[in-house]
Amino acid sequence: MEWEQAASIGSAAWVSIALLTAAVAGMQGRGKLWWFFITMIFGPLALFFLAIWTEPLKKQE
Questions:
Q1: Which residues, other chains included, contact 21 with Cβ-Cβ below 8 Å and sequence gap of 6+?
Q2: Is residue 38 over pLDDT 90?
Q3: Residue 56 phi, psi dihedral angles, 5° rounding
């Protein structure tokens, strides 16, 4: 596997994790865009933190 191919696969995985984190954050009533950008910086660590966060926010009706 060449370096360019590995970088392409890694980038796709990183963005996919960021999108997954944004979806989970939206289901918990948190800001999707905010969590997307946090995950783009911190990666899977942000998804892990969001998953162990105990109390989801209440959705405003």
A1: 35, 36, 38, 39, 46, 47, 50
A2: yes
A3: -70, 150
